[in-house]
Write a structure and sequence with these properties.
Elements: H1 9-24, H2 28-37, H3 42-51, H4 65-71
Length: 78
């Protein structure tokens, strides 16, 4: 399930705030859901792909909008 969409800075900050609220409440699933909804920075995705492997992104739960905008939609298979 892909959740690729652009977010404004205010939307990213709001998602971060909600993620930390979940973490403080002991809701790890909510924390993960909100943090993965924030577009992953391309440089971080590239490092994670190289260091951890492309299978890390296999479940499609990460917001890859900024990554795909910079590297293209097939970046993971390159």
């Amino acid at each position: 399930m892909s959740n690729n969409k652009p977010m404004t800075l205010d939307e990213k900050l709001e998602a971060s705030r909600k993620a930390f609220e979940c973490l403080e409440a002991g809701d790890e699933d909510g924390y993960s859901r909100f943090t993965r909804s924030i577009p992953l920075p391309p440089y971080l995705a590239e490092v994670m792909k190289e260091q951890i492997g492309p299978e890390f992104f296999a479940d499609g739960s990460w917001n890859m909008w900024e990554v795909e905008a910079e590297f293209g939609p097939d970046w993971l298979s390159k």
